[in-house]
Each structure stands twice: as C-alpha cells, then as structure tokens.
Amino acid sequence: AISISQALFSGDLKSLSAKELKDGFKDVPQVTLSNDTTNIVEVLIETGISPSKRQAREDVNNGAIYINGERQQDVNYALAPEDKIDGEFTIIRRGKKKYFMVNYQ
User: Fold this and answer.
1) CA–CA separation, 105 vs 96, rounded Å?
2) What is the spatial distance between Cα 56 and Cα 81, in angstroms, rounded to a whole number?
3) Number of structural domains, the chain?
4) Which one of 25, 47, 58, 59 is least enclosed by Cβ atoms within 10 Å?
5) Residue 52 maps to a domain
6) 98 near 84, Cβ under 8 Å?
7) In terms of residue numbers, what domain contains 63?
8) pLDDT, tens digit (0-9, with 9 covering 90-100), for 16-71
9) Is residue 9 part of a domain?
C-alpha cells in the first residue's frame, strides 16, 4: 500500500503492476472507450474527461493531460496498444488530481 501511494503521488505509474494499479485506482471514475477511438482529443471527449473539443485541445496543449503518468502535449497523439496496461486499461490524469481509468470495449 505504501509503494502504491508513493507511486501515485510521484506520478511514477510505470513502476506499478496492473494489479497494483487496479487496487490503487478502484475509487477513481471508470470510463469506457470504444477500441476504434484513438486520437487524444476524441478520447477525452468520448470518455467525458473534457467537456468539449476546445477544452480538450486546450488541456493537451497546456500540458494538463497525462497518459499512464507521462505528459502528453500533442493534440494529434493517437493512443496505441502500448498505452494499454496489460491490454486492459489506460490511466489518464487531467490536471493535478483528476484520475480516470479508461477501460476498453
């Protein structure tokens, strides 16, 4: 539990296993994404993480979006299969404290 907490607060999600991430993020909003949506702006809209395309683009450009703990500032970024942890889910953070677990259909 201590190592999970330290990794979450430091943003070092790569050091945790999929099971540890699931345990650590069991209380965060779970959103579902269709497998054919890959563009970061579209992902933020479809999952409800950002309320509009304008806001989604602004969040990405301003460095407020993190994919599995890594800042993403390219509005043309496409989620790749490598972004899925154990092929099941992706952790997206918006801002400092808003985490979302994105599950795939």
Assistant:
1) 27
2) 21
3) 1
4) 58
5) yes
6) no
7) 28-104
8) 777 877 877 788 888 888 878 789 999 999 999 999 999 999 999 999 999 988 89
9) no
